[in-house]
Design a protein that fits this description.
Elements lengths: L1 H36 L7 E2 L6 E5 L5 H5 L2 H10 L4 E6 L5 H5 L4 E6 L4 H13 L4 E3 L6 H10 L3 E5 L10 E3 L7 H12 E2 L15 H15 L8 E5 L10 H14 L4 E6 L10 E4 L3 H8 L4 E5 L2 H8 L4 E5 L4 H4 L7 E4 L5 H17 L4
Parallel strand pairs: 1-8, 2-3, 2-5, 3-4, 5-6, 6-7, 9-10, 9-12, 10-11, 12-13, 13-14
Helix pairs in contact: 3-7, 8-10, 9-13, 10-11
């Protein structure tokens, strides 16, 4: 048994080493290609007057990263009202969220398998996009997809390590929020266009999602009217961002003391056991989850996809940050706030949620 465990550790170490070597080789190749066919400095220029077909590429499975696109997509749709805005993503579960945005045309999903991928590239090239956008500064996959799209205008962040000649490029300010960086890419790289910008995350679940969400709500809380506000929470953040179960149980106790009229509702992943002795619900479909979250008065979670989804659904969110920076990843929405630090307690987070709830009740929302 000990030998098997030792072998497993060695295998994990070798996989990690191979992954690091591949990443290092890829970065060296990108830097070499950038010297000959990259864009290392900002390029500001007008868009072509006949820009009607736009493709935004974000090949990343993290829900938060996809939601960070929504202010940029809304800015594009509002500022180019005659254009069709398409998006290329990696996770099909996120497709309904982006399709709910005004002005979005088609949401493409990167398929598995070389043959299917080649077929997608051919379909993208047949669309004859006028503009393709890589909204990040560190994704070789995004940059490759922009190149393969065949778009005559290409937009992205200037970089010393990303190849591809861009027609529009902006400098990247890492001090900005990730969502704000994507909007700044538009305003900083395009001349002679007055952008109507958006600065909050947003999704708009359709009637089907709203109906399904109501069924989950009734299952968790009953069909009658709820007693007072409903405060949601999510305990399953990943890695160093996660908080212990005991911390969450203390938060629940503090929350009950500060808001005795409220009902606590845990949002948990499908198949996961509840963390605390409260009502709970698990929803698999992301647009249905967004619709359910929109029914809450306040939502508390560590930095995670559900935290950003709640903000996009219009819920005041208390974001908890122990391992990541709220300057870059805070929930962006009306009434949202953050609690940051290495040692904040459940009581501190509960007080923040109580303050947000009081503000919502004073405004007549909750």
């Amino acid at each position: 048994m000990a030998q098997d465990s030792h072998s497993a550790v060695n295998a994990h170490g070798w996989r990690a080493l191979v992954k690091r070597l591949r990443r290092a080789n890829r970065e060296r190749l990108n830097r070499w290609l950038t010297r000959f066919m990259g864009t290392a400095r900002p390029v500001r220029a007008p868009l072509a007057a006949d820009t009607r077909r736009v493709l935004v590429v974000r090949l990343n499975k993290r829900l938060g990263n996809i939601l960070f696109l929504t202010p940029m997509l809304r800015t594009l749709a509002a500022s180019l009202p005659t254009a069709s805005i398409d998006v290329l993503i990696r996770d099909p579960r996120q497709k309904p969220l982006l399709e709910s945005l005004p002005g979005i045309g088609r949401v493409w999903v990167q398929p598995r398998g070389l043959g299917a991928l080649i077929g997608l590239i051919r379909r993208l090239r047949r669309e004859r996009y006028d503009l393709a956008i890589d909204p990040t500064g560190n994704s070789s996959s995004n940059r490759t997809a922009v190149a393969l799209s065949g778009a005559r205008q290409r937009m992205g962040f200037a970089s010393n390590s990303q190849w591809l000649r861009l027609t529009h490029a902006a400098g990247r300010a890492n001090s900005r929020h990730q969502a704000e960086q994507a909007v700044a890419l538009l305003t900083d790289s395009v001349d002679e266009l007055d952008f109507k910008t958006f600065d909050t995350l947003a999704v708009f679940p359709d009637n089907r999602a709203q109906t399904a969400a109501r069924a989950h709500w009734v299952e968790a809380l009953g069909s009658g009217p709820t007693r007072g506000p409903v405060i949601g929470f999510f305990t399953r953040a990943t890695g160093r961002k996660a908080l212990p179960a005991a911390w969450w149980r203390d938060w629940c106790e503090q929350m009950r003391r500060l808001a005795p009229a409220a009902t606590l509702l845990e949002i948990r992943p499908p198949g996961a056991e509840p963390t605390a002795d409260t009502a709970s619900v698990a929803v698999a479909e992301l647009d249905v989850l967004a619709a359910l979250l929109s029914r809450l008065s306040v939502f508390t979670a560590a930095d995670s996809g559900p935290m950003h989804l709640a903000a996009a659904a219009g819920v005041p969110v208390v974001g908890l940050f122990r391992a990541t920076r709220p300057e870059a990843y805070a929930p962006l929405g009306q009434g949202c706030t953050s609690v940051a630090g290495e040692t904040f307690t459940g009581a501190e987070a509960a007080r923040a949620a109580a303050r947000v709830l009081a503000a919502e009740q004073a405004s007549g929302v909750a």
